[in-house]
Every structure is written in C-alpha cells, then in structure tokens.
Design goal:
Elements (H helix, E strand, L loop, with lengths): L3 E6 L5 E2 L14 E5 L1 H7 L2 H5 L29 E3 L1 H7 L3 E6 L9 H14 L4 E5 L3 H13 L2 E7 L4 H8 L4 E5 L3 H14 L3 E2 L5 H6 L3 H9 L7 E5 L4 H15 L9 E7 L4 H7 L26 H11 L3 E4 L1 H15 L5 H15 L8 E6 L24 H9 L10
Helix pairs in contact: 3-13, 4-5, 5-6, 9-10, 10-12, 11-12, 13-14
The structure holds pyridoxal-5'-phosphate and zinc ion.
Length: 417
C-alpha cells in the first residue's frame, strides 16, 4: 500500500476506503484521511520540499491526492511577514503574519478547494459545489471554472456584496439562501444526498480539510524549519484550527522537525462564539448559536462541525480561545492596516483583536515567536469599515483650494455642482 491508508473514523477508528464519504456508518463520527507516516518519512525530506513548486503542492506527500499542481497552480506558499510595527505596538518581540489574503481568490479557502477539486476529479465527479459563508464560494467558483466543471455555490443572502461579485464573476450557478449558514448547510447536505455532486465541505470534506494543514507546514518551513511558540487562528467551523494542529504533529511524525510545542489559540467574534464560549465554560459541549450576529460573516457558523475537535486541539497545546466585539474587529482591521499596510477582511480583524487581547491578558508573552493567520482580504468586506475610515479632503483643482483645505486645514470650499 502507498502513503495513504484510507479514511478513518475520528471516534471509533473504523477504516474506510478513499471514497466521497464523510461520516462513519457505525457511530456517525467524522472521517479523516489516515496516512502511513513511516512510508511518508521514507520519501519526504526538507530538500525535496524546497525543490518543489512554490505552492501548497510542495507538501503533496502529506496531502491525500496523486496530482494537483497541474490543475491548481499558484495556490499557497504565501508570504510569512515579520511584523515589526504591529509587534512593537502590541509589545511582542517576534511577531509574524501569515498573509493568506494574497491567494488567487483572496482567502485561504483556495488551499482547501485545491485539494478537494483534485480529489473530486480523481473520484470522477463532473460537478463541484459548496456551502459557503462567503470566501469558499469564490474559491470553488474559480477552481470549477478553470477545471471546466459544472459548479453550484450556496451563500446566505445577507453576505457582503464583495463576496457575491467575487463568486459570480467566474460564472457558477450561484444560489442565495434566505437563512443562516447552518440552515444553508443542512440544505446542502440534503442536496448532496440526492445529487452526485462533489460538495467540497460536505461529502468530500475529509479531503478538503487536509488542505488547511499546508498553513502549518509553510509557516514551519518559512521560520527555518522551526515550529512557532504560539499561533492565533480564526475559527468558523473549526476545521482550519484543527488541521493546523494536525499539520504540526505530522511534521514531527515524518521527521521534518524534532518537536512542535506550539500553543494554538482560536479567535471568534462575540456575536458568534460557540467554541470560545464552551472553552470559557470549561466544557467540550458546544451550545450552538441560533442567530449569529457579527460583522465577521465568514466566521458566522452557529453550529461548527469541527468545534469539538478545535477545543480538544487547543486544550492539548495549552492555548486558549478568545472572542472580540465588532468594534474590536474593526479596530483590529485598522490596526493591521496602519501598522503593516495589510488590509484584511473582518475575520483577520478578529484574529488581530484576539491577538491583542491575549497579549494584554498575559497569555502571550513578549519573547514568544508568534504567528497570526491573516486568512482573507479586506476588499471583499469593505462595508465593515467604510463608515470608520478617515474622510478625504475635497478640493477644487487650484493650489489655493488645496492649501486652504489640506495644508492650513481651513474649511474646504464646498464643491458646487
Ligand atoms: C472560512 C474562513 C475561516 C474559518 O475557517 P474554518 O475552517 O471554517 O474554521 C477563517 N477565515 C476566513 C477568511 C475564512 O473564509
Ligand atoms: Zn465511527
């Protein structure tokens, strides 16, 4: 057998073949890709990875597909930036930002879709679909268009305008659902049962989820093959955080690094913080949020599929969860822009807000090597900040008008129409 053993139930450990299935028939536990790490250890090395493509496919030995780089090049291997200004502002000596807002459709979702579509093609699907809070829709629509597949994307009808255009432009069948993400997700599960479509985050979810591990792999490589002391990760369904934990462990298992003592902390908005609330209440029982109400719509998942595993992952590392208000989210977006010149979306504002809070609470200390994951681009969620940015000067095209208004700060002459 090769490096991939099959799918394995996270609860009872039963093994399944590599098929488009995601739940255990016996205990209803979620399925996860299971690898032969001894075999991978034999074939993988730092040198081989460094010679690989400048994309997430340099880690193909740890991903559940045979081919991928030809169908989705240019995804991943995004910059890890040393954030001197933000670090100084927060009192951190070694802060980095993993800027995943520069992926082809401007969020980390391109990674998960790259793996999902590669697997969907291997499995013979001709239709790609997803249940999205916003960013997944554009990633699926773009990948589906490039692959020449039929594509259906489902979005809640209160999503930001920028997220709709960023999906619609690729020409998918775009379905706006009048309801919460959780209601939409339930609808998609029913559709996935009836139609033979590859729903990236439903029936091919085990493969999709593996794409997020690349965010752990790249950070370790970019730090010079060293695991950070602390990472801060935004949490919607909890899959990204869980897989960053899995990715770090795998790097140790296959001998790429000796140890990973990384504390993992999760970030949520207070208007939809089911996982952070459970953590605060010291329970693994997540109480779903019925009506999420937050500016961070990409994290507005009231009943997170991997919330339980995100709690277990964080607990095992000594990290924590925090939540921030919409005001703190906007402040986070502005702080990142003003200190580092990066315009992130609301989810990134949640991450920066929580990073700040964890430092203030002493849960992150000044000497730690810290990485904050910036997962999406601000151009898609402009309504979050439009009312909260500095207003421009309005001037006539004359030097005196310019100086009056801008240099001497006198009241500008109103522009007559
Ligand atoms: C989807 C998304 C997340 C959350 O990922 P999960 O795997 O659902 O926890 C974070 N940030 C952005 C920008 C996203 O689009
Ligand atoms: Zn099971």
């Amino acid at each position: 057998m090769g490096r991939i053993k099959g799918l394995k139930c996270r609860e009872c450990g039963r093994l399944y073949p590599l098929e488009p299935i995601h739940v255990c028939e016996y205990c209803f536990g979620p399925l996860e890709v299971d690898y032969d790490y001894d075999e991978i250890k034999r074939i993988i090395s730092r040198e081989k990875i460094e010679r690989g493509p400048l994309s997430l496919w340099r880690y193909k030995d740890l991903l559940p597909v045979e081919r991928g780089e030809d169908s989705s090049p240019g995804i991943g291997f995004t910059p890890l930036l040393r954030a001197y200004n933000l670090g100084r502002e927060l009192g951190l000596k070694e802060l980095y930002l993993k800027n995943d807002s520069v992926n082809p459709t401007f969020s980390f979702k391109d990674r998960v879709v790259a793996v999902a579509i590669a697997k969907a093609k291997e499995l013979g699907f001709d239709t790609l679909a997803c249940a999205s809070t916003g960013n997944l829709a554009s990633a699926v629509a773009a990948a589906g268009a490039k692959a020449g597949m039929k594509t259906y994307v489902f979005l809640p009808d209160d999503v930001e305008a920028g997220k709709i255009v960023n999906a619609a432009i690729y020409g998918p069948n775009l379905v706006m659902v009048h309801g919460t993400y959780d209601e939409l997700n339930r609808l998609c599960s029913e559709i996935a049962d009836r139609y033979h479509w590859a729903f990236v985050n439903v029936n091919v979810r085990p493969y999709y989820a593996e794409g997020s591990k690349s965010l752990a792999f790249e950070v370790v490589e970019q730090l010079g093959w060293r695991a950070p002391d602390h990472v801060v990760v935004p949490v919607g369904s909890g899959s990204l955080l869980t897989k960053i934990g899995k990715g770090l462990n795998e790097m140790v298992k296959v001998g790429l690094i000796e140890e990973a003592n990384t504390r993992i902390s999760g970030a949520q908005p207070t208007g939809c913080a089911p996982v952070a609330n459970a953590f605060a209440a010291k329970t693994l029982n997540i109480r779903p949020v019925k009506k999420p109400d937050t500016v961070a719509k990409s994290l507005a998942i009231g009943n997170p599929a991997d919330g339980y595993y995100a709690l277990k992952t964080v607990g095992g590392t000594g990290g924590g969860f925090e939540a921030v208000t919409d005001d703190e989210v906007v402040e986070g977006i502005k702080l990142l822009a003003k200190t580092e010149g990066i315009f992130t979306e609301a989810a990134g504002g949640v991450t920066v807000g929580v990073l700040k809070k964890l430092v203030e609470e002493g849960k992150i200390t000044p000497d730690e090597c810290v990485v904050a994951y910036i997962t999406g681009n601000g151009l898609k969620t402009q309504e979050a900040v439009t009312e909260r940015v500095k207003t421009p000067f309005f001037v006539e095209p004359h030097l005196t008008s310019f100086e009056d208004s801008v240099i001497f700060n006198r009241t500008a002459t109103p522009i007559s129409s």
